Amino acid sequence: MTSYNTLEYSITGAVAEIRLNRPESLNSVNREMRSELFAVLQRANADTAIRTVVLGANGRGFSSGADLSEGFLQDQTVEDQILDEYGPILSLIGEMDKTVIAASPGIMAGVGAAIAMRCDLVVMADSGSLIMAFSNVGLVPDGGASWLLLRYLGYQRCYQLIAEGGRLDADECLAAGIVNKLAPADQVMATALEWAQALALRAPVALREMKKILRQAADRSYDEVVKIEARAQKACVDSADVKEAMQAFFEKRQPVFRGE
Length: 260
Hints:
The chain is of the alpha/beta class. It has helices at 31-46, 78-95, 110-118, 145-153, 155-163, 170-176, 188-200, 204-217, 222-237, 240-250; strands at residues 7-12, 15-20, 52-57, 99-104, 107-109, 121-125, 129-131, 167-169, 181-183. β3, α2 (78-95) and β4 (99-104) form a beta-alpha-beta unit. Helix content is 47%, strand content 16%. The two termini are 27 Å apart. The chain is globular.
């Protein structure tokens, strides 16, 4: 088992569990964490036995955002860091065949919030909050946070949140659709893992194709989405999982999906 300095990784059945592990800094994201997080996501994605991934954190919060004390490489600009180091992580989360559930035990701020929101599903502590404090230090959101929040909140509410360096509490995040479920802070990871185990029993091909559809639909026309759905439906119909589901229906039993 590969060891990591800034995160923990384990597998239970068909579920991979990743925990950001810099609790002393509220899991602020430094260069080593960026490298390790991308590597462990690649590892989970390549493992065909894994069907769902839970991305959580140790300590009081998911992540306070970028580690501002670290600075940049000698020949690195902030643009390079965002595109070359955060970009691959964010792209991989969206492109993985597997469902990724973020589990936030407290605050999620800055690019940490962007990473959590990029996941397919989010469980948040009922005492937690989302913080966009970029403007407090003269910055703008990054990691795709603007794109995501604009779609959840609409222009005026999004602008206000970002301009004021504000926060949304857990209930506001739930109402806006930013998170899916709330749980007591000490039960967030257990809630996410239980959900992940349940989703791991569902048809992997269907979940994979559904994720592809939804990740494209926001930026495509209605007619384009109909075509994307048609191709996805063919992939599902041609799978062994559909045949198993039909047989299980007639035999009045639960299907056993193999992702084939």
